[in-house]
Amino acid sequence: MPIYAKPHLSLSDQVRHLSAQGLDCDPEASSIEALHDYGYYRLTAYTYPFRRLLLPSEPKDSAYQFRADDYLPGARLSEAAELARFDHGLRDKLFDGIAALELALRFQIAHVLGKRNPFGHTDQASLDGRACAEPAPHRVRARFASMFDFWIDEYGKLIDRAGGEDFIRHVRAKYQGEVPVWIAVETFDFGGLARLYSLLERYDQNLIARRFGMSDGRQFHQWLVGLGVIRNHCAHHNRLWNRQLPHALAKIPPLTVKPDLHHLSNVAHRRKLYGWISVLAYTLRNYDNTSNWFRTIKTQLGKFPASNFVSLSVDVGFPAGWDGESLWNGAPSATRTLPTPV
């Protein structure tokens, strides 16, 4: 295996290198600015579809190489920069939407589990026995006998991480260290919320899921896991466009959701963004009938740059006519209807 020996290149040298491969880098000043703002490897990830596909007879440097080094006629670095700017806006809008879901989920878990037991998040008797007894994730199985044991350790870390907060110090000092679930959830990240949700009684899972328009609590948990991955990509400024996600969106039985989501049964690219954006829009619209997020994200998607090399359908998994679906149309209600009985 060869040792990596490519030299460091100045920004001007990077422009000359890309130009030699057939990428239009005019005007040079704008290309240098784009390379400065995004970095060579981040920006060239957006130019990758502009490169020529390797012929079957051509040699590959590795099993993961599918395109040649040279660019197709008409490929421009400025188009890649425009695509990167679109992706930046998409991450911002998605992060806002998932943040709204996270806050709603905090309340719902605290409200539903807290009614069963204020300390139900640390009491196995208040959770689903079968889920708690499941083996811990393989990477930590040697340390934890069960998912419940793994959760208790994770919960302790979340509380300790927030230990400097006055409200945690106060509750711990006054109540001998016990923290009720409606306070504890304020220390949870999205992954912690999804983990605790997975351990809830099936009745509690379904009750919470119905608040978001889904009658199957287990499938709602799958949505949370998939959206959690997207949230992390957003938080770390990773590319979302043209990304194959690790979790495929499972088929959704029509009886478990309202008709707004039925069109997902025909979506072919279930590891791409469209399906996941759709379930996020659906949950937010069902939870808060005044939510405008579905229109915000639709507006951002309308900014996808015109191109001969990339498209929403191929690269992000959007079906033809997606913007005509009922999920993306209509207007938010002027009057809020709370999803939880008062």
UniProtKB/TrEMBL annotation:
<protein>
    <recommendedName>
        <fullName>Abortive phage infection protein</fullName>
    </recommendedName>
</protein>
<dbReference type="InterPro" id="IPR011664">
    <property type="entry name" value="Abi_system_AbiD/AbiF-like"/>
</dbReference>
<dbReference type="Pfam" id="PF07751">
    <property type="entry name" value="Abi_2"/>
</dbReference>
